Amino acid sequence: MPRIQYFVAASLDGFIATPTDDLGWLLQFDGFEGGKESYESFMADVGCIVMGGETYSWLLEHEPDNWPYPDTPSYVFTHHEYTAPSGSDITFVRGDVTEFAADFERDAGGKNIWVVGGGNLAAQFAAAGLLDEIILSVIPVVLGSGKRLLPLEGPTAPLELVASRTMGRGIVELRYRLDGRTAASTT
């Protein structure tokens, strides 16, 4: 059965972007030891991608001629009107994540579903009891403010740490399993 996974990087103080969606703090770590291998191993098991409109907009702005997931069905939750880049398999949707869970699973073709971002969308999956796993790379930077990793009202039930490893440049990758009872409301 496919798992819904939130594979994400966050600052030491729990932010995935600055208040203005700047990722310079993260991009300075590109090419760290173990990062490429972790990403490629993760992507080998991904059959469907789900993201929020802000993440989609950021990708279009920063990768204008290069859709990074050409062979993977993707869903974008948005209230804006967008067009899909040439060669992409993107479906734009509005509504509750639970309305589309069967579509994600069908399109994943037995593989996993990656909630790319942002934190608000991942929190909706968690609140609905649909998020199975968080794979978090903790980046050794403190932002002080920004877009939260998982903006849920807490506390949640304890998450189960199933793996951890240290990678280059002081980055730690943590893999947590959620049990469905972790559900909390979003803020």
From TrEMBL:
InterPro entries: DHFR-like_dom_sf, RibDG_C, Riboflavin_Biosynth_HTPR
Pfam families membership: RibD_C
Organism domain of life: Bacteria
Residues annotated as domain Bacterial bifunctional deaminase-reductase C-terminal: 2-172
Protein name as catalogued: Dihydrofolate reductase family protein
Lineage: Bacteria, Bacillati, Actinomycetota, Actinomycetes, Micrococcales
